[in-house]
Each structure stands twice: as C-alpha cells, then as structure tokens.
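Figure S7 source data.
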Amino acid sequence: MKKIIAYGVRKDEMPYFKKWDADNSDVQVKTEPKLLDDSTVDEAKGFNGVVAYQQKPYTASVLNKLGSFGIKALSLRNVGVDNVDVKALKNNGIKLTNVPVYSPEAIAELAVTDMMRLIRRSKIFDLKSLNGDLRWAPNVADEMDKMTVGIFGTGHIGRMVLKIVRGFGANVIGYDPFPNPQLKKEGIYVKTPKELYEKSDIITLHAPALKSNYHMVDAKAFSEMKDGAYLINAARGSLVDTDALIKALDSGKLQGAGLDTYENEVGNFNKNFGSFDKIPDARLKNLMKRDNVIVTPHIAFYTKVAVKNMVEFSMSANKDLIDTGKSDKLVKF
Ligand code: NAD
Ligand code: COI
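Tokens for the predicted nicotinamide-adenine-dinucleotide complex:
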C-alpha cells in the first residue's frame, strides 16, 4: 500500500482529503495540521510521498531529510514554487509538482474586486459612513471603462483578469517576456515594463516571484507611472519595494493600491493578533490604515472551488509521481 503524508492541512481542506482518500483505496493518507519543517519532517519517515502547502520555506535541511527517507515525490497544493530550495531538491532526486491551474478565476476576481473598490472609493465610503458621514464629496470616483489596465504577466491569472476587465469596457495592455500567441495577434503587448507603467491607469501584477524580479516595482518604476495610477499586487510581495510604495502613496503619485500579498507576509498573514495594535509589522499597519489602500491577507486563492482543486490535484499528482515518476504537473526548473 502506498502512503502519502499531507502537511499543513487546514480544517476547511479536510472534507476534500477525506473524499480523495475514499476514492483512492490503494493509498493510505495521513493528514498533519503542522507545517513541514525541521520539527515535523521526521513524521514523513516510512511514507512514499509528501503533499504540502506553506509559505514558509522548504529548506535544504528538510529536503535532505526527505531524501534520506527515500522520498522522491513532493507535491505542493499551490502554484508558486518560489519558497523551494531547488538545489537541495535536485541533489536529493526529489520530483516536485505544483497545481499550476486550480482556479485562475479566484485570483483574477479578487484583483478586479480591488480595482473596483479603489476606483469607486468603497473603503473611503465605508469608513465615512461608520462615522455617520453620508456625504458624497470629495470622493468622486473613476470609471473602469475609461481606463487602461496594464497586465504584468499574461499567464493563466493575467489572462483571466484581461477577460474580466474587458467586460467592463477597459482598454487592456500587457507585458510578458513570453507573450501569449493569441494576445500577440490581438496586439495588446507593450515592449517594456516602462511602457506598461507609462501607459496604464491601473497596473496589476501577475508574474511569478523570481530572483531577477525582486523589487521590480521600485522607486524608478513608480516614477515612470502616470500620476494618480493604481497598483494591484495579488502575485507575490517580493515584486514590490514596500518603502518605495509607501513613498509613492505619500506623494500622491499613486492614487491607491490593492495588496493581497506583502513582502513580509509570512508570520503576519493568516494569524489572529487579537487587535490591530498588536499586529507587529509597522509598515503593514501603515498600509492597512490608509483609506486608499486595500490589504487582504493573501486570500485571492481562498475560494471553495480553488481549495477543492488544490487538494485533489496535488494528491493525484503525488500518487502519479509515486506510481510512475511522472506527472503532468511536474515543475521543470
Ligand atoms: P502562469 O505561470 O500561468 O503565468 C505567469 C506569467 O508571468 C507567464 O506568462 C510568464 O511568462 C510571466 N512572467 C514571468 N516572468 C515575468 C516578468 N519578469 N515580468 C512579467 N511577466 C513575467 O502563473 P499564474 O497562474 O498566472 O500565476 C501568476 C502568479 O500569481 C503565481 O506565480 C503566484 O505567485 C501568484 N498567485 C497568487 C495567488 C494568490 O492567492 N494571491 C494565487 C495563485 C497564484
Ligand atoms: C499560490 O498558489 O501560489 C498562492 O499564492 C496561494 C497560496 C498562498 C495558497
């Protein structure tokens, strides 16, 4: 009997793990609520495969331990693989799968929700009305159908954003080092990030986090943007230089930001601190307090459809790796 251990399992994932377990009688499944790290890795001894989801790094010491247990199959329940020590993975001959497409709609819909909340001043009106102020002025809104949305990264999520904002009548442009052939025919691409910044009213990030694009949205990038542009980041916090973002908001260069990701989110997001004051990260609180900034704690993926697909697709990919050493979800580095 094959044995798979799944780490970091939340309560809301359990029904999907139970269903997958019931549908796969040739596999024994163990679920572990704790994350995969040095303190929990020994539990994987005796298992054939590991399924995990966490933003915490998959470190060399954890991967070396898995390798020493003879485990060759690691499957992540999410898209991003930026927190995996690739060298250690390769040294141990461990194959990695992710869930490249679990619901691009989930992330795209949140990104567009943020755009609409910002341009219609929803947070401002919510805060005003809680203070008994039901006046309109001075918070006159913008309209999406008069705006140009610049999509940075036109993969699965970026293309879904494109489809939705076109429904609002927005003009769409995109930048991607690997353009999509269909969108290329449609002529949506600009040649450089600079051109995207210069021409967009709303810039929305949908590129993976790589070493090469760390803090790519920095002070220079903000200076290239239109005065009064909006920025949406539902991709990865490391893409944006937070200090530069705060300065761009302070100066009014940026009219607003929608942030579902934040560069220091690990240890802050998906935790209950009990009160706003107890949130330990000063820059995060600075952003959260602003009426023109929407911060959500990396919830774009968190829909029923996405959670179900993340569990089912990752478990099946792990079983495929154990059975055949192959998977259509294999991550190629
Ligand atoms: P994808 O692989 O389908 O698309 C990524 C696109 O970005 C590709 O077209 C690629 O060519 C392009 N790209 C690569 N480097 C780039 C660069 N430097 N500049 C511009 N474009 C670049 O991935 P996806 O499913 O669209 O997901 C995109 C990212 O969204 C993921 O890598 C992940 O970090 C993030 N994400 C966030 C959430 C969330 O809950 N907030 C959920 C899923 C994914
Ligand atoms: C991803 O799938 O890469 C995400 O960002 C969502 C994850 C944090 C669950």
